[in-house]
Structure formats: C-alpha cells, structure tokens
Amino acid sequence: MIIESSLDEVKKREKALLIIRDIVENNGRESLYDLTGLSGGFIASPSELSLLETYVGPAIFEDALQEVGIEHMGGEKILPLNRTSSGILATILALVGKGTNVVHYLEQLPAHPSIPRSCKLVGANYFETDVFEEFTIPDNTSLVVITGSTMDLKVIDEDEFRKVIEMAHEKNIPVMVDDASGARLRTVVFNQARACDLGADIAITSTDKLMPGPRGGLMAGREDLIDLIKVKVNQFGLEAQPPVVLAMLNGIKNFSGENLIKSFSRKDEFFDILDKRFNNFQKTPNGVLISPEGLSREIDVDHNLSDNDLAFVLSFILLEDYGIITIPAVGMPGASATIRFDLSTNDAFNMDLNDLGKKIESSFDKLLSVIGDEDKCREIIF
Amino acid sequence: MIIESSLDEVKKREKALLIIRDIVENNGRESLYDLTGLSGGFIASPSELSLLETYVGPAIFEDALQEVGIEHMGGEKILPLNRTSSGILATILALVGKGTNVVHYLEQLPAHPSIPRSCKLVGANYFETDVFEEFTIPDNTSLVVITGSTMDLKVIDEDEFRKVIEMAHEKNIPVMVDDASGARLRTVVFNQARACDLGADIAITSTDKLMPGPRGGLMAGREDLIDLIKVKVNQFGLEAQPPVVLAMLNGIKNFSGENLIKSFSRKDEFFDILDKRFNNFQKTPNGVLISPEGLSREIDVDHNLSDNDLAFVLSFILLEDYGIITIPAVGMPGASATIRFDLSTNDAFNMDLNDLGKKIESSFDKLLSVIGDEDKCREIIF
C-alpha cells in the first residue's frame, strides 16, 4: 500500500499542488482543467481589483449585486453572505424563537445539517420529512423550510413546492427556501419558477454551485425580513466580504444557463464515450465518476496496490500528463478517492469530450504499464 | 438644511462614489487618498489571482498563512475567519457551555458587543469589569476573556494581562484574547509581548485594523482548541474565504511596524500644523478629527447651513479638489459627519503632512467662499 496514513495524504497533496503550480507557471492557467467541481470562481478585472482597495469598491459592488442578484433570484432585496450555512444560521437567529417549531420539506433525506444545527442552537424543535403526504405544520411553528434541490441534486416537485408555501402562508408563517444549487438547477434545467416568484419569503443560493462564482451564499426575499436578518448577519460576522461580493457579481454575470443545460446532456454523451472502453463509470447529475473499487474491476493484470492507491496513481497521471485536476490528487486528508469528472465547471464547458475520453484512456493505459512497479507508482505520487 | 433625510444621504453617497470612480478612471488609483481608516486592503498579484481560480490557490494561501500568521501572532496554529466577531462566536460556541460563566477584563468599558451577545446565544452568564482589583473568576467559569486594546485604542497593562492569565490557568480555564488592533498596537507601539507568548490559549486579531489587510479575523493559539473551534467555524460558515485569505497573507506581509509607529508620532506633528490655523481639531490615537460642531465654531461668516451640512460640503471639496476621501462624503446613511484624517492608512504613509495641511486649509477657504450660496453648496453635494 502506498497511501497509508493522513501524513501520506498530506504529502501526496503537497506534490499535487507543486505540479499544478509548475503547470500554471510554465504553461499558464489555460493548460489546467479543473474538473473537481469544487474550485469556485474568482472573476475580476484589473480595474475592479484596484477599486477593491478603496472605500468605495465594496459599495459599488454591493449596489451592483442588488440589481444582478434580484434578476437571478427574484425578491425585493439581496443580502450576500459568507456561506449558505451562515445565511441559514442568520435566518433562524432572526426568525425562530426558543421552543417554537421549524418544519422542513425536501425531496429526499438527509437534510443539510446546517438547518437542524441552527435550530438546536436557538432551542427550537426541528421536524423534517421527504414524504409530501406526511408534511404538516404544527401549531407554534415559526419557520417553514423547503429545500429546492438536495445535495445529490434531487429536485422538488413544483406543485408540492407551491402547496407547502400555501400551507405556511395560510398560517402566516414565513418560508425559507434552501436553493443552494436549485436556484439554477430548478429554473434552468427543470423550467421551474424562481423560489421568490413561487412565494418564498426568503431564498438562499450557493454562488459556487453550478455557476462560476466564489464559495458564498446569496440571499433574496422580502425586504422587511432581509433587514431583520441583516442585523444578525452584521452582529455575528456572517456577511460576504468585498472581494467575495465582487466575485459573486461576476459569477452571476458569467453564469450561462445554456452551458448548464449542456453539461446535463453532455454527461450522457461522455458516459457513452467512456462506456465503450470501460465498464465501471457511473453517471452523476452533471458528470461521471469511477470509484476505486470500480477502477480495480477494470484491471486484469497482477499488482499489489490497494483500490485507493490505483485511484491516486491514475489521478496523478491525469494531472501530470494532461493538467486534468481531480479530487484524489488534490483532496484534503480523508477526502474520497473516487475520481469524478464534473462537466459543469468553467474549464469543462469548452472541452472536446472525445479528446477528454482519449486522455482518460491513455492515462489508464499508463496506469496499467506502471502498476507492477510499486516504486514507480510511489514516485508518481510523492 | 441640505442633507435632511436618509434618502439625501444615499444620494450624497452616490455622488461621492461617482466622483471617486471618475478619479480612478481618469487619473488612476494613485490620485486618491483614502484617509477614512475603514477601507481595508486587498493586495494581490496577477499570478496569485490566477491561482485563486483553481482548486489549489486556496490551499496554497492557507498553508502560507500558517507560517506568516504564526510569525505575527505566535501560537501553534492559525485559523482565518470571516470577521473577528465570527471568531469570538465560534470560540464561545466551542468552549462555553450553557449556564457556565464567562468573565472579561478590559482596560476601559464598554466591551465589544460580540462577546456578551455570543454568551447570551449559548445561555452563559457574562461578567465584565475594567477595574483590575475587582476582577475575580467565579466557580463554574468556562472562559476568561481579555481585550488587548479597546475600540478606542486603550491598551491593557501588561502586568495585569499576565496576572489575569495566571488566575485563569490556576483554575485550568482557557483564556481568549480579543486583540483586534492590539496584536499590532500593543506589540509594536507599546513593546508588549504577543498574546500567545503571554500565555493566551486563543488570540484573535482584525486584519483590517492598523494593517493593510482585508476585513477579517485571524485566530492563533493552542492547536487542540483551534481544532475544536474549527469544527464550529465550518459548521456555521464562519471561515474566511480564499480571496480574503490571500489578502490577509499579503496584508500581514506588507504590515510595517515602522509605519504604524510613524503614524502615532505623525499625528502630533499633523495636529501642530493644523493648530496654527484652526482651533477645533482633536487628536485620535492615529490621526486627527474635527466634529461638525467644531467646524461650525471655526466659521465667523453668516450662513444658513447646519453643522452637519458644513462637514458634508467640506468633505466633498476635499474629495473633488484633492481626491481626499473622508467618511462624511462616502459614509452610509446614519454615519457620523465628523471628519477624521486617519494617518495609519496605506495612502497616508507617504503623504507630506504640510502639503495635506495646505489642502485642508485651501478646502476650508473654498467652503467659506461658497457658504453663503446654498444652491452652490447643494450642487457640490448632489
């Protein structure tokens, strides 16, 4: 076994960072293809960056974000947050009292942990269900939560979405929608309405999910509620900082629904290309993956490597030979060794899938050629 | 009266932003002198910015920040936070139990509100004092807090600092130091030791205070406690995001103790220059200010302007004629109309104080020449 400990993982990651730095320095950023889907974006022009240094840059970007954000999300007012989780915390701090109830409807459990966790912090009772017929709103409920699309990109039915909002509003209870990826996935791919247009009082999206923006949360909704939430946001330091606000603004401006739709159809095309040679790739909503076990089943030559080691070596070959970044090479200790190719990333939009498929095949062939030589594999990783 | 409502203030601010944008576009950033002391810094090279777009940039900057941050703050491990307030919240979430006591010693009340507020959130009892002789640590105390230097830059006595830490450690209670500006003010100007070197278990500083960094919090301290706090930070979205981490790194690297010491002595020099002509300027720890009432007392010609209007017009003349940014022109609705000249800002470091004094005199002369013509004043502001 090559990667045996967290320390090995740290060393492996350091090596990957060095390779990437070399590629950026010698061949430029355009020779790097980040398909992790975790990179986030930071788009900024030199004139914007020089404004960022002054008192006014932030003010200009926040003002501009009001306009661009409302176009993207609907609602009356926008509030940029450090994370979607911080926005959920602030909403619950502002609207949910101790001993009251919070009920959450989502397409498929589990819920994002930030919701029950924030409820616990304020001493509220939290209930969740993914069975629409079982969804009820008990007395003494302070907030109804809807998840637009889950962490695994399962999308809520729009009729159920509307009905939950109706049920809440009949009792005068505000509705917060966690629309982390849903604000784009639901509207662009599934042709649903924006959460605020469906009647949500507060909606939050993640600006790094399915768009070229930074990690952060963008809240939209009723001005009176946003103003209440903003007080908590400023008190506890939950707001997005100016450089992030700038990147949010440019991320939304550079968001292309067409590219997103394309990535959803392209994953089928890409799967078919890979399926000609391999048997163990699987589709994700916006790309493909192969697990360490799946990779192992592709190999019929003798070797002493663990399944995870196979994935690490392949991930390093992809990086070193073709500048393709996948999580096993750069992941933090404990990250999964599954190799994902996310086609909704900025770098993926313009890639030729046949060419990418050939690079994966050729990297796999190289894996086969070194697999019997553990020292050689060790050298590739460290 | 010219500025009568929040709407007027918004319009005034919009005009100021336009003037600043024009100056940046026509004459470049170097023609602008931001003396608000509120700008924060965002220093980044083109190669760093291109790294920011990739999965690895953040990892590289966080690693580099460990080294540079420990040099600045001491301690075993660094944790970059969205705000100092978020770091205080996370520490209290991680270390303070419901019903336990938190005691806080600072040089002068009032304390920063984030500390009692976070205690209230977790249901802890909060006690504070600025009288050292009255400081005691009751039973069932989970955290002792020390403020290194207050919001008004009052600095704690180093012996009292040590004694409070000793008292806490005798009872095995961890000590958190809110060293927002103190991490630089105490060490560089007052020759005190770093909080961690004095025995603090956790210390937090604000990277935009007295250094050219972004708004954000930098925590340092015992690795075991930082790891506990980091869990809360990640759960509730309190960490600094990659662009901010990059700017923190460069802010610390560009911090000059010499410049800070200079700003503290230069404020005396500057005060003397202004005092030749004016009677109502006052010293701040790192600059000078004149209040609207003080400004009014400088004027012996007839006019119908309010004290605040006088300050607004003068602030706009300073901006339009000399590119000098002060808060009355760019401030948010409700901000103070006091004109502060902060000499610890990046832009102030290389300014000739005699020249700056002349610009202020000449702007004041212009104020006198337009003061009788309310329409003219209105035109300057809107």
Outline:
Two copies of one chain form a homodimer. Chain A is built from 15 helices and twelve strands. In chain A, helix 6 links the parallel strand 5 and strand 6.
Percent strand of chain A equals 5-15%
What is the number of helices of chain A? 15
Query: Quick one: overall form of chain A?
Result: globular
Number of DSSP strand runs of chain A: 12
**For the largest interface in this structure, which chains are involved and how many residues does each contribute?**
A-B, 62 and 63 residues
What is the arithmetic mean of pLDDT of chain A? 91
SSE pattern of chain A, N- to C-terminal: HEHHEHEHEEHEHEEHHHEEHHEHEHH
Cα-to-Cα separation, first versus last residue of chain A = 13 Å
Helical content of chain A stands at 40-55%
Task: Give, in spatial order, the strands making up the sheet with the most strands of chain A.
Answer: 2-8-7-6-5-3-4
Structural class of chain A: alpha/beta
Largest sheet of chain A: 7 strands, mixed
Radius of gyration of chain A, whole Å: 23 Å
Ranges of chain A with pLDDT <50 over ≥5 residues? Answer: none
Oligomer: homodimer
How do the strands and helices of this protein lay out in sequence?
2 copies of one chain form a homodimer.
Chain A: H1 6-27, E1 33-34, H2 46-52, H3 56-73, E2 77-81, H4 84-95, E3 101-105, H5 114-122, E4 125-129, E5 141-147, H6 158-170, E6 175-178, H7 182-189, E7 202-206, E8 217-221, H8 223-236, H9 242-253, H10 257-275, E9 282-284, E10 287-290, H11 292-297, H12 307-322, E11 324-325, H13 327-330, E12 339-342, H14 353-370, H15 374-381
Helix pairs in contact in A: 3-9, 4-5, 4-8, 7-10, 10-14, 12-14, 12-15
